[in-house]
Amino acid sequence: MADTAPRETHDGPQFEKTPAPGGPTTVPATAADTSPDNPWPLQLLSKKLKAHIDRTPAAWVEGQVIELNRRGTSAYLTLRDVDAEISLPASIWSSVLDRQAAPLEKGSRVVALLKPEFWLKTGRMSMQVRDIRPVGLGDLLARIERLRQALAAEGLFAQGRKKALPLLPHRIGLITGRDSDAKKDVLRNAALRWPAVDFEVREVAVQGATAVSQIIKALRELDAHSDVDVIVIARGGGALEDLLPFSSEELIRAVAQTVTPVVSAIGHEADRPLLDDVADVRASTPTDAAKRIVPDVNDELAKISQCRDQLERSITRMVERESDRLTALHSRPVLAAPEGMVSVRADDLERLRTRSTSAVTALLVRAEDNLVHLMAQVRALSPQQTLDRGYAVVQAEPDADHAGPLLVRDPVDAPAGTALRIRVAAGHLLATSDGIPPLPPSDRKNP
Hints:
Blueprint: E1 4-9, E2 12-17, H1 42-55, E3 59-71, E4 74-80, E5 87-93, H2 94-98, E6 109-119, E7 124-134, H3 137-154, E8 172-177, H4 181-193, E9 199-204, H5 211-224, E10 230-235, H6 249-256, E11 262-266, H7 274-278, E12 281-282, H8 286-293, H9 297-330, H10 333-336, H11 338-381, H12 383-388, E13 393-396, E14 406-407, E15 419-424, E16 427-432, H13 441-444
Parallel strand pairs: 5-7, 8-9, 8-10, 10-11, 11-12
Antiparallel strand pairs: 1-2, 3-4, 3-6, 4-5, 6-7, 13-14, 13-15, 15-16
Helix pairs in contact: 4-8, 5-6
């Protein structure tokens, strides 16, 4: 293999190849430029990898120690993620372990400062632990409290987000450990309170690396179930480390996104994981959760009996009150003798009819008398009546000066020789005027 010399570029150390007989004069600058005819030397790739890995900064990570083996001045351990099935082997100097106040043991939760290292000759990469610190109870509590405050600031714990539990759920989703006491407590106490209760159970890991993922998967399945009206997440008591999955940020956000109401029943009264804050209802224990999700059938039957008694008393009072009203109404004269109402009206009608008949009769009599009187007046004033008393009407026959008969009122109107028509009571007669005769001596003084 030809000799190489390092060359610094913006991508890190680069290497140029000394020309070899019959070969290329330079190596490609990047891996993308390599080809079967112009490859990189293996050492170049290894050196590039080492240079890249050496530039990677150390990082603090959190995990759980699942393996620890000491071999002289060095030790080998395996760290596993606290929420997922991911592990990573690493090496650590015994001197770093000896600095710990307490011996590091399997199952310890730690934070470690990891730096990747690449061995050029063997082409192997390993993780070197440069510092390691156990995560104590106080550290866990402080971390949970910081997460609690951050999520509360987002509004995930606000009361306005809480959903009310149904009075009597059609089916209850239960997420709990496999054959756990918490499962038995919820099922038994719920059945004692409401024998017809129906459960949709999902058994999952409630501690360990897979707990969070399994709980979230079961939660989403039950939330999508059309018959599930409420979801209970239950676990018995335990150490703080055992309850850490129920303070996982991923789980808290998954619960906040559910449509179905969620009840948290984790541990005992003193336990307070973040799940209690985001859940719609917090139960102090799994037994308490059973009391909250279903009503007590005996209490409900007692309430029904009480309501029936109240309803019966109300109806009885109403019937008695209305019966008294009917009795009072029936005792009134109009109802005691209902025909009296008709008789009174019949008497009134007869009296009014008699009065109207008398009034009409009197009116007719007066009208008849008035008519007779008027007729008598008409007869008394008629010309015929005058004629009947012996009077006569004298008319002069018409002449050239008068077209019709001329009523004679004065003797001068009928000079001698005037043809006269004299009307008497029984007819008329004709006569001739002799003029005005001389007055008798007796009338001359009194014309």
